[in-house]
UniProtKB/TrEMBL annotation:
Lineage: Eukaryota, Fungi, Dikarya, Ascomycota, Pezizomycotina
Name recorded for this polypeptide: Alcohol dehydrogenase
Family: Belongs to the zinc-containing alcohol dehydrogenase family.
Cofactor(s) the protein needs: Zn(2+)
Pfam family, one: ADH_N
Domain Enoyl reductase (ER): 29-359
InterPro entries: ADH-like_C, ADH-like_N, ER, GroES-like_sf, NAD(P)-bd_dom_sf
GO molecular function: alcohol dehydrogenase (NAD+) activity; metal ion binding
Coiled coil: none
Length: 375
């Protein structure tokens, strides 16, 4: 049952941009609005203010993840709290939040009862946003799991927060999982992308790391330089050239202390591991079918390989505040209205913009755009 601290009057239907058929354009459709009375104890109903378009949305569209169609697309949602369940005490009506991506963590397993940063790995969780019968954030009203949501700082706009709901939290966690100290070297594969340009800044401005940035696109290389990477290497020159460049930059230690792989290119893991010094760390972030690293990297150079998935609720909130405090620049392209989304998806497919994209869904939401003291 829902807790209502004020009368909530909602329309019976809402507009939503959905995946109706794999490998076909998204469709703008009319669907039922969620019912306040149906909210479970930990759920929160938000009015979407702005939503982000993530590169992995293309994988959803291709059927790369198990989905029940039709489903509303998008897992980067922000909005204003309008109602919440009976056991949800973290929020009040009017709070501005970033939606978490997981639903229904069990609360009983080792991950749920271990360190907070592991809770979202719960193997008994119900589902993720835009999967398992759960709609995503390309709609006007959305039910989220309040335990996974994070408050947006007052000095941040919804449009800036939206891309951080996946790209920001994922890049933040990846840099944390590199387990480095100030002054050490980090390699970033796919450094000029939506995640990469954020990872460069998190590494340098927040953690004091030195960055070897690797990308394979002219725009990506340029953006890597603009974001402050110490060394920028062109992956198109081949693995040997990238390794030589990394070794030249890092001197006697012979490579970076850790690499995070954000690009998903078939050769990125091999190159990313090759630029790591002996006994260093390689962190896979991009979602791919297989990660290919020559076994000799493990046996003769003792490279430690791990994966990194999103971030926890607490880590996400820390990231949002760090973006404001350290003046992290989000390379953001802001578009207006749900109807424009199929066109923006086409732009993403054709690599027609740099960085990230945010779609303003509710123009009347307080602080929806940067300005008036908000980033």
């Amino acid at each position: 049952m829902a807790t209502q601290t004020q009368t909530v009057t909602l329309p019976e239907t809402q507009q939503a941009v959905q995946i109706v058929e794999f490998n076909k354009p998204h469709e703008l459709r009319t669907i039922p609005t969620p019912s306040v009375s149906d909210l479970r104890p930990h759920e929160v109903l938000i009015k979407i203010a702005a939503s982000g378009l993530c590169h992995s949305d293309l994988e959803y569209l291709k059927g790369g993840f198990p989905l029940d169609l039709p489903v509303t697309a998008c897992h980067e949602g922000t909005g204003t709290v309008i109602a919440f369940g009976s056991n949800m005490h973290r929020f009040k009506v009017g709070d501005r939040v970033v939606a978490g991506q997981t639903f229904g963590c069990c609360g009983d397993c080792e991950d749920c009862n271990g360190p907070e940063h592991s809770r979202h790995y719960c193997q008994n969780r119900e589902t993720m946003m835009c999967a398992g019968g759960r709609n995503g954030a390309f709609q006007e009203y959305l039910v989220i799991d309040g335990r996974e949501a994070s408050k947006i700082p007052d000095a941040m706009s919804f449009a800036t927060a939206a891309p951080l709901a996946c790209a920001g939290m994922t890049a933040w966690r990846a840099v944390l999982n590199a387990k480095l100290k100030s002054g050490q070297w980090i390699g970033i594969m796919g450094s000029g992308g939506g995640l990469g340009h954020l990872a460069i800044q998190f590494a340098k401005k927040v953690h004091g790391l030195k960055v070897v940035a690797v990308d394979a696109r002219d725009d990506g290389l340029a953006l890597s330089k603009e974001m402050g990477a110490d060394v920028v290497l062109d992956a198109r020159k081949g693995k040997d050239a990238v390794v030589e460049g990394a070794k030249a930059a890092t001197g006697k230690q012979g490579g970076v202390d850790a690499t995070i792989e954000l690009s998903g290119h078939p050769t990125a893991a091999e190159t990313g591991a090759a630029i790591v010094r002996n006994h260093g760390r390689f962190v896979q972030v991009a979602i791919v079918d297989r990660v290919s690293i020559p076994v000799l990297e493990f046996l003769f150079r003792d490279i430690h390989v791990s994966g990194s998935l999103m971030a926890s609720q607490k880590e996400t909130e820390e990231m949002l505040h760090a973006v404001v405090k350290h003046k992290i620049h989000v390379e953001n392209n802001i578009f207006d209205g749900l109807a424009v989304i199929p066109k923006v998806v086409e732009m993403l497919q054709n690599v027609q913009y740099r960085g990230k994209a945010a779609i303003v869904v509710d123009e009347n939401a307080v602080g929806v755009r940067p300005g008036d003291g908000r980033v």
